[in-house]
Design goal:
134 residues, alpha+beta, Nuclear Transport Factor 2, Chain: A, six-stranded mixed beta sheet, 4 helices, NTF2-like_dom_sf
C-alpha cells in the first residue's frame, strides 16, 4: 500500500509542478482513458495530448493546478491494483479558481514501478461525497 500511496503522491506532484513528462510516465504506454462523462474510451496518449497545454501553463506559472485523491476501495497484490474513489482537481487561471470532483477507478500494474493501465473517470462527484471519504 505504501508504494501505491507514493504513486498517487507522484501524480499530485507532477500536476502541481506542471511536469508533463513525469505525469505521462505514471501511465503504461498502452493505457486507456475511459470517460463516463463523455461516454468515450481512447488511448491515454490522446488524452495526454489534450491535457498538455494545462501542464505547460502550470509550469510557466500562468496556471496553478493541483489534484487530491480519496479512496473507497483498494484491492490488489504485489503486481496489480484496483483503486476506486474520488479525485478533486482544482486550478486557478487568470485569478479565477475552479475545481471539480470526479468518481474514478484506476487499474494499475507494477512493472518495476506502478503504472496506470486504465483510468476510468466515471461521473461527477459532490463535495459531500468527497467529505464522506477518509
Amino acid at each position: 500500500m505504501a508504494e501505491l500511496n507514493e504513486f498517487w503522491k507522484e501524480v499530485s506532484r507532477t500536476i502541481e509542478e506542471g511536469d508533463f513528462e513525469g505525469y505521462a510516465g505514471t501511465f503504461h504506454e498502452k493505457a486507456t482513458l475511459v470517460s463516463g462523462i463523455s461516454n468515450k474510451a481512447y488511448p491515454i496518449a490522446t488524452a495526454l495530448a489534450g491535457w498538455k497545454k494545462d501542464f505547460v501553463d502550470t509550469r510557466s506559472g500562468q496556471r496553478k493546478s493541483s489534484v487530491a485523491f480519496k479512496f473507497n476501495k483498494r484491492l490488489g497484490d504485489p503486481s496489480t491494483a484496483f483503486e476506486s474513489g474520488i479525485f478533486y482537481y482544482s486550478y486557478e487561471l487568470d485569478g479565477e479558481k475552479n475545481g471539480y470532483y470526479i468518481h474514478f477507478d484506476g487499474l494499475l500494474v507494477k512493472e518495476g514501478t506502478w503504472k496506470m493501465m486504465m483510468e476510468y473517470q466515471k461521473s461527477a462527484a459532490t463535495k459531500e461525497e468527497w467529505d464522506a471519504l477518509k
